[in-house]
Write a structure and sequence with these properties.
Blueprint: H1 6-16, H2 28-38, H3 41-48, H4 58-78, H5 92-100, H6 110-116, H7 121-127, H8 136-149, H9 154-166, H10 176-189
Length: about 190
C-alpha cells in the first residue's frame, strides 16, 4: 500500500506480463479505489443475471449502472482519491457525463455496459450457488467509505440490501424493470436520500 516493495513489484509484474499487460503504479490506493468503484456493477449484474439471460431492457440496465457508478465516483472524490486510468475502463469524466444523460443513446457508458462487460465474478459465484460472494468487500466497503465521508449512495445501498436478501442457493435473476422497481421501493423503505 505504501509502494515500498519496488523489487517485489517488479518481479510480480514480470511474472504477470507473461500472460497479461501489467504495469506498476506509485498510486496504488487511487488505482485500487478506482477499480472498486467500477466493481460496484458486480452486484447489479449478478442480480439481473447479466450474460446468463437475455437483457429485457438495455435502457434500464444502462440507467441503473450509470447511476450507481456516478455514486461511486462522488464517494471517491469526497474521500480524496484521484482518478487513476485503468486501461479501457470508463473514465470518471465519461461516468459523470453519463450520469447527466443516462437514458440517451449517446451515453458514453452504453457500449461498455452492453458490449464489453462480461459475466462478473459475483455473477459466477451466485449462479454456482457459492455461499459467499464479494458483496461485502466491494459494495459493503464502498458504503462504509461513503458513510465515513458523508456521501449518500441510495442506489448502491438499495442494491446491497436486495443482493443480501436474494443471493442464496437457488437464486433466480431479476428482470431489469422489476429490479429498478425494487430499488426504488427499497430507497423509500430505507428512507434513503435520492
Amino acid at each position: 500500500p505504501k509502494n515500498n516493495l519496488q523489487p517485489e513489484l517488479q518481479r510480480v509484474k514480470d511474472v504477470l506480463n507473461i500472460g497479461l499487460d501489467c504495469t506498476i503504479t506509485n498510486r496504488l490506493q487511487d488505482a485500487a479505489h478506482c477499480k472498486l468503484a467500477i466493481n460496484l456493477i458486480n452486484a447489479l449484474m449478478a442480480l439481473v443475471g447479466f450474460r446468463k439471460r437475455s437483457v429485457e431492457s438495455e435502457k434500464i440496465l444502462v440507467h441503473m449502472t450509470t447511476r450507481l457508478l456516478g455514486e461511486g465516483i462522488q464517494v471517491l472524490q469526497a474521500a480524496g482519491f484521484k482518478e487513476h486510468k485503468l486501461g479501457s475502463l470508463p473514465s470518471w469524466n465519461d461516468i459523470q457525463i453519463a450520469v447527466n444523460i443516462p437514458e440517451s443513446p449517446t451515453n458514453p457508458l452504453h457500449d461498455f455496459i452492453i458490449n464489453r462487460v462480461g459475466p462478473t465474478s459475483m455473477t459466477q459465484d451466485v449462479f454456482s450457488d457459492k455461499p459467499k460472494t464479494e458483496l461485502e468487500s466491494l459494495t459493503g466497503y464502498m458504503l462504509k467509505l461513503a458513510h465515513k465521508v458523508g456521501v449518500s449512495m441510495p442506489i448502491n445501498q438499495a442494491i446491497y440490501q436486495i443482493a443480501k436478501e436474494q443471493f442464496c442457493p437457488g437464486f433466480r435473476p431479476i428482470a431489469e424493470i422489476e429490479l429498478w422497481e425494487m430499488i426504488n421501493n427499497k430507497i423509500l423503505d430505507l428512507k434513503l436520500e435520492p
